[in-house]
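INFO  loader      accepted 1 record
INFO  loader      residues=173
INFO  predictor   begin
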Amino acid sequence: MSATAYDVAIVGAGPAGGTCAWYLARAGARVALLERQVFPRDKICGDAICSRAQIHLSRMGALQQIMDNDEGHPAAIGGMVSPGGVVAIGNSTAHIASWPVIAIRRIHMDHRIVLAAQAAGAELIERFDTSDANLDRRTGIWTIRSSAGTVIRARALVAADGANSRLARGWGW
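INFO  predictor   done
INFO  writer      dumping tokens
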């Protein structure tokens, strides 16, 4: 149990939670990044990094590591074929400063982001299966509990535990 409250606790160390942790830690916040699993861990979704996301990965130093370790594979040419057979395929690298998309497995991307967040000062707490989180309105402190009984306290809470957030569902959102 943390005797002193963190500035921010982030539930979920995927791309959103890890990136949030990096920015907050870089700004000087004391950040707890809570993850149910252990890194590196794999997921079977979201394995294409668009050009806007590449900007953030570059700031974090993660993009260079991804490319240096042959974990990302740029796709310069792409497009679509409509149900009616209209074809739109092209190369947009001449119009943007980076590759339109980089294909990468989540096991590599998520791990690189978490490593960057840790290097910025965020504390990764793995095997933290969040069971509930409650705000004490009198003190303004969140108490976040794991199913194993571990307790973390923080002044702010970010629910970055995915599209089907258990935290949000628990609060009726």
